């Protein structure tokens, strides 16, 4: 057994190592600075405290982006130096973010060990490569992201750190499964490399009726396409969709994980998932042949999803509402009923209407999955979602892209159980339109202005807050832009009091609420690695079934004009158009 020594390395703090709701994200070149990653990791160990670190089992893996393999080795050596007992690594350093959550919650080692936390190496849906983004976040023993109390401590520690602990362990082979054992000052230290997919696949099989989905996928009348955008979802797609569910291998697109995501932007939306969008008949030019009945895409770390029907886009806000409305009859895991449902504040109110009709507990929370996690840990929420292509349930404490795809396939399998031998197929579009007819339609769009000057973005937000002090003035501006838009009846900055722990989250987005149920929401997003991203959310509710079939951008055009005029978007940012529209 190789013997290792522990050493203390002197270091100095870096500016701006503040983890957001999604951890710390910066350009690779920033992470590659001497001691940058080490400072953050040691600050995390110090925030957790020796009692949670010494003797612990921790997971270290991620989406496989550039610099991940180096980071696995650095963190492993530091874990040994800090008295951790064992490290679990997904083969080749690959584990999706939902799979990490599942491994923490479900996996038991050969010696009975259970993980109590994880370093997840991902910058989510941001690009990868030597000149692109890297990220790291810590998840707790419930499988969910570290709460603010811990991330605040990490940040404070990064500002004062003077040394970190590491060891002279040799690099561990993470390409082959198996256990490598070492001996150090505090005894044995193990690194176990395990199959990335097995625990997650087992969990999915316990939630869904794989036999009914298999019947759907093997039916000649149903065609399917899944695009991993060269992210970590590729490590699960073949195992689940092809080997377990019998889909053709040709139905998988870009399912080989790559360090640079094949040079693409691993964000599953209509702008970046170009190949899938074209195959589904939604591209600017006509696709070759008949599009598949169902298509889906994942982001870099496989926690986000996009759902498409043939020539039909399902908004994430509609998706979570439709899953909630159909979960009990379609998904065995929910057969006993839903405990409650929740959405992030910027997400459309489609889920609210379902909750009201089905008499379910309903929660509106700030953006950030940890808020859902609190509700789930308290047994108050079963299904939840965000407009930013994140959907999930209480099976883990992260959003889960493949889970959402399997949920949709379950609904389609249930609706078509009598149609697979020649009957007319109930399509994705049919399900969505029937949902609108039952619950009404929430026309919805999001405008993203990426890499805006941070100072200009803050000025724009301050302007919007100031405007709210006089609603008559706001309505004067609104009617001057479009006389056919309803009156603003309320304006505020969203604030949330957690019903579980009583914590209060302020300044969570600026809202303008209209008399007819329409909404404008403005938020600064922390998911980019440079500049600021302004997100503008525009929503209009339509109950009249004869008016639910309009083109979304056309229906929302008056509200869009009001939003851009009210915020003085071009004046503050210099942008005449958003970077991305979803």
From TrEMBL:
EC number: 5.4.2.2
GO MF annotations, alphabetized: magnesium ion binding; phosphoglucomutase activity
Catalytic activity entry: alpha-D-glucose 1-phosphate = alpha-D-glucose 6-phosphate; O-phospho-L-seryl-[protein] + alpha-D-glucose 1-phosphate = alpha-D-glucose 1,6-bisphosphate + L-seryl-[protein]; alpha-D-glucose 1,6-bisphosphate + L-seryl-[protein] = O-phospho-L-seryl-[protein] + alpha-D-glucose 6-phosphate
Keywords from the UniProt entry: Carbohydrate metabolism, Glucose metabolism, Isomerase, Magnesium, Metal-binding, Phosphoprotein
Entry-linked PROSITE patterns: PGM_PMM
GO cellular component: cytosol
Pfam families: PGM1_C_vert_fung, PGM_PMM_I, PGM_PMM_II, PGM_PMM_III
One GO BP annotation of this record: glucose metabolic process
Domain annotation Alpha-D-phosphohexomutase alpha/beta/alpha: ranges: 17-164, 199-308, 317-418
Keyword Magnesium annotated: yes
Cofactor: Mg(2+)
Record-linked Gene3D superfamilies: Alpha-D-Glucose-1,6-Bisphosphate, subunit A, domain 3, Alpha-D-phosphohexomutase, C-terminal domain
Record note on quaternary structure: Monomer.
Family: Belongs to the phosphohexose mutase family.
Task of the protein: Catalyzes the reversible isomerization of alpha-D-glucose 1-phosphate to alpha-D-glucose 6-phosphate. The mechanism proceeds via the intermediate compound alpha-D-glucose 1,6-bisphosphate. This enzyme participates in both the breakdown and synthesis of glucose.
UniProt cross-references to PANTHER family, sorted A to Z: PHOSPHOGLUCOMUTASE, PHOSPHOHEXOMUTASE FAMILY MEMBER
Protein's UniProt name: phosphoglucomutase (alpha-D-glucose-1,6-bisphosphate-dependent)
């Amino acid at each position: 057994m190789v013997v290792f020594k522990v050493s203390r390395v002197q270091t100095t703090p870096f500016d701006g190592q503040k983890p957001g709701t999604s951890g710390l994200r910066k350009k690779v070149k920033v992470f590659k600075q001497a001691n940058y990653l080490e400072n953050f990791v040691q600050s995390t160990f110090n925030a957790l405290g020796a009692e949670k670190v010494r003797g612990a089992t921790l997971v270290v893996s991620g989406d496989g982006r550039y610099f991940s393999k180096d980071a696995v080795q650095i963190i492993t050596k530091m874990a040994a130096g800090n008295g951790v007992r064992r490290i679990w690594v997904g083969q080749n350093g690959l584990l999706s973010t939902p799979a990490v959550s599942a491994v923490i919650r479900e996996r038991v080692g050969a010696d009975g060990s259970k993980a109590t936390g994880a370093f997840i190496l991902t910058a989510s849906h941001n690009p990868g490569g030597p000149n692109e983004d890297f990220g790291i976040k810590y998840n707790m023993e419930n499988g969910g992201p570290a709460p603010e109390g811990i991330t605040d401590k990490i940040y404070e520690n990064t500002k004062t750190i003077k040394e970190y602990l590491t060891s002279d362990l040799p690099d561990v082979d993470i390409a082959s499964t198996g256990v490598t054992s070492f001996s150090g000052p505090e005894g044995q230290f193990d690194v176990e490399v395990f199959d990335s997919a097995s625990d997650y696949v087992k969990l999915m099989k316990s939630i869904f009726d794989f036999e009914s989905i298999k019947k759907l996928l093997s039916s000649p009348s149903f065609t399917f396409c899944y695009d991993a955008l060269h992210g970590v979802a590729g490590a699960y797609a073949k195992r689940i969709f092809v080997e377990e569910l019998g889909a053709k291998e040709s139905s998988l697109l870009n399912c080989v994980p790559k360090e640079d995501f094949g040079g693409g932007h691993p964000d599953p939306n209509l702008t970046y998932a170009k190949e899938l969008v074209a195959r589904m008949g939604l591209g600017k030019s006509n696709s070759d042949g008949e599009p598949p009945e169902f298509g889906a895409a994942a982001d870099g770390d496989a926690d986000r999803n996009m759902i498409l029907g043939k020539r039909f886009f399902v908004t994430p806000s509609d998706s979570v509402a439709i899953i909630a409305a159909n979960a009990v009859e379609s998904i065995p895991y929910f057969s006993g009923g839903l405990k409650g449902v929740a959405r992030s504040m910027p997400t459309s109110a489609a889920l609210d209407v379902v909750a009201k009709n089905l008499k379910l507990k309903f929660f509106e929370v700030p953006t950030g999955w940890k808020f859902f996690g609190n509700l789930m840990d308290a047994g108050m929420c079963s299904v939840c979602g965000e407009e930013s292509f994140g959907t999930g349930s209480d099976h883990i404490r992260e959003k889960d892209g493949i889970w959402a795809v399997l949920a949709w396939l379950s609904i389609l399998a249930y609706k078509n159980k009598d149609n697979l031998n020649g009957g007319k197929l109930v399509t994705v579009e049919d399900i969505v339109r029937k949902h609108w007819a039952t619950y009404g339609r929430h026309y919805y769009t999001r405008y993203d202005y990426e890499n805006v000057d941070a100072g200009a973005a803050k000025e724009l937000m301050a302007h919007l807050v100031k405007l709210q002090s006089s609603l008559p003035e706001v309505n004067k501006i609104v009617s001057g832009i479009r006389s056919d838009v309803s009156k603003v009846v309320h304006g505020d900055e969203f604030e949330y009091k957690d019903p579980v722990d009583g914590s209060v989250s302020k300044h969570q987005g600026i809202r303008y609420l209209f008399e007819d149920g329409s909404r404008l929401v403005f938020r600064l997003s922390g998911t980019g690695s440079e500049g600021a991203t302004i997100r503008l959310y525009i929503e209009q509710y339509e109950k009249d079934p004869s008016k639910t079939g309009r083109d979304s951008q056309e229906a929302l055009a008056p509200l869009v004009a009001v939003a851009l005029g009210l915020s003085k978007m071009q004046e503050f940012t210099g942008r005449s158009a958003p970077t991305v529209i979803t």
